Amino acid sequence: MNQTTTYSVNHQQLSQLMQSANISNFEQLSEVSGVSQWQLNRLLVGLMPKLSIETLLKLSKALKVPLEQLLVRFEIDDSLTEDWQVDSKVSSSVTPSIAEHLQQEYQHLQQQLKQQKETLEKEFQQSSLAVLESWLLQWPTAAIVAQKNPQLSAVKLLPLVKPIFELLKQWGLEMNATVGETIPYNPQFHQLLEGGGTAEPGDLVVVRYVGYRQGGKLLHRAKVSPVKKDEESGLLNSP
Fold first, then answer.
1. What is the distance between the alpha carbons of residues 14 and 61, in angstroms, rounded to a whole number?
2. Which CATH topology does 3-84 take?
3. pLDDT in tens, 11-38
């Protein structure tokens, strides 16, 4: 099969797979899969054996088709079958042999990814526990003491929660405003408490519960209540 025919057949096959995966063009396929358009063009002209297993796995995932189905869809240049260590005289066995080899590699990569994920989770847990160590050791005792002595000032317990805030800081978690702060109301970052009244953007409100953001992403809006008119007058007249 000449190169022009190979390209035409492969282009049609890839277009069908893209349509089934709701991918509109090659630029989008490249972005979704992480495979360069140059690599996609190599696939189209019949150079599949020149693509790495990792590249084929990415395409398989992006197109939402099994690896074996991806292999049987595309024409392979006969001059390249040596790269797959396949005898050209038994071309009928090329696809099953390739599929079996790639399936083994795929399973191996999956196992590696699973092990890496487990390792990262353990490292994350250990690093978090290291930051929380003082709190883990002291908080249970402090809680019992507080239960037995209701007169104990809560201020004395505040230093014990410092490790928790330190951990949140390491995770990039930031508080959105502080409790008791008076700020202009912004519906994007603030939520009015139910039954607490109404406010228009720019009106002064008091923060009742803090909000949080992480890396520029808003996680929780701060809960606020409107400042009463007499309170607002006092704020404006205060030095």
1. 14
2. 434 Repressor (Amino-terminal Domain) (1.10.260)
3. 888 888 999 889 988 889 999 999 988 8
